[in-house]
Design goal:
The protein has helices spanning 7-10, 13-18, 120-124, 161-170, 191-198; strands spanning 2-4, 30-34, 53-58, 68-72, 80-82, 103-110, 117-118, 134-138, 158-159, 174-177, 202-205, 215-223, 232-241. The protein is an alpha/beta fold.
Length: 242
C-alpha cells in the first residue's frame, strides 16, 4: 500500500524527524509505502511452528461493551525482525537494539527473477552504493504475496552462506527480504543465519516489496519491544521523495 502525503503532513516536524537524512522539499512528492504483510490467522508460519490465532474475547455484536481479541503467535511470523539473539545466545536481544538501527536511509535492490539462490556475484552486480548500510532485497518472492490463500513454500529465494559472508565483509548492518526467511530452507546448519546474526547484522523478513522500485528510501521498522526478545512482528514502511 502506498500513501501520498499532503504538503501539510510533509511540513509536520514529526514526519520530518522520521525522515532521517531526507529533508522534505516543497518541489518533491513524498510517498509512504507500507511494506508490511497484513497480520491474520490465515498467514502461514514456519513449518513446525504453531499457527497464528486471533481469539475473540469480547464482541459488541454479542452485547459486549467493546471488541477485544487475544493474539497467540510465534515471535517469528508475518513481517518480523531477527535480532542476533535469535540464533546467537550471548548476543543482542530485541530490547538491546537501539531503535535508530531500525530507522534510516536504506537501499532496495532487485535480484533478477531467474535467480533462485542469491550468491556473491549477484550482490556484486546489484549496484549496491558504497554508503549503503541497510539493504533490502526485492526478488521473485514478492509475487507470492498475490496468491490467496497464502501457503508456505520452501523454494523461496534466499541468501547462500557465501552471500552472507559477503554481506558481513561489506559492512552492512541491516538486511531485509521479501519472504519468511533470508536463509535457504535446506540450510540445515543455519549457516546463513549464524553468519549474519553472529556478526551483529539485524534482519527484517517477509516484506511485501511488490510496489517498490529499486532505489533509495527512508526505512522505518518498528518491532514490538519484547523484553529479552528473540524476534517480533513489526510494522515496516518505506518513505521516498520523488
Amino acid at each position: 500500500m502506498c500513501v501520498e502525503l499532503s504538503q501539510q503532513a510533509c511540513d509536520d516536524p514529526i514526519i520530518q524527524s522520521i525522515m532521517i537524512g531526507a529533508p522534505v522539499s516543497h518541489s518533491l512528492s513524498t510517498r509512504i509505502f507500507d511494506v508490511t504483510i497484513p497480520f491474520s490467522a490465515d498467514l502461514p508460519v514456519w513449518p513446525g511452528d504453531p499457527a497464528i490465532e486471533l481469539r475473540p474475547l469480547a464482541r459488541t455484536a454479542d452485547g459486549d461493551p467493546c471488541n477485544t481479541t487475544q493474539i497467540v503467535c510465534p515471535t517469528h511470523c508475518g513481517t518480523h525482525v531477527d535480532p542476533p539473539f535469535h540464533f546467537i545466545h550471548q548476543s543482542g536481544r530485541l530490547d538491546d537494539i537501539p531503535i535508530e538501527r531500525w530507522v534510516g536511509a536504506c537501499q532496495v535492490v532487485h535480484i533478477p527473477d531467474e535467480v533462485t539462490r542469491i550468491e556473491p556475484e549477484h550482490l556484486e552486480s546489484a549496484g549496491i552504493a558504497a554508503e549503503t548500510t541497510r539493504l533490502l532485497f526485492k526478488t521473485s518472492n514478492s509475487r507470492r504475496w498475490a496468491s490467496i490463500p497464502l501457503v508456505f513454500e520452501t523454494d523461496y529465494v534466499a541468501l547462500t552462506p557465501a552471500a552472507a559472508r559477503w554481506i558481513v565483509e561489506r559492512g552492512l548492518k541491516l538486511i531485509g527480504i521479501d519472504y519468511f526467511s533470508f536463509e535457504c530452507f535446506d540450510d540445515a546448519e543455519n549457516e546463513t543465519h549464524r553468519t549474519i546474526l553472529g556478526n551483529d547484522v539485524i534482519a527484517i523478513e517477509a516484506l511485501d516489496l511488490r510496489e517498490i522500485q529499486p532505489g533509495f528510501y527512508q526505512l522505518v521498522c518498528l518491532p514490538l519491544k519484547i523484553a529479552s526478545g528473540d524476534g517480533a512482528p513489526a510494522r515496516v514502511i518505506l518513505i521516498s521523495n520523488e
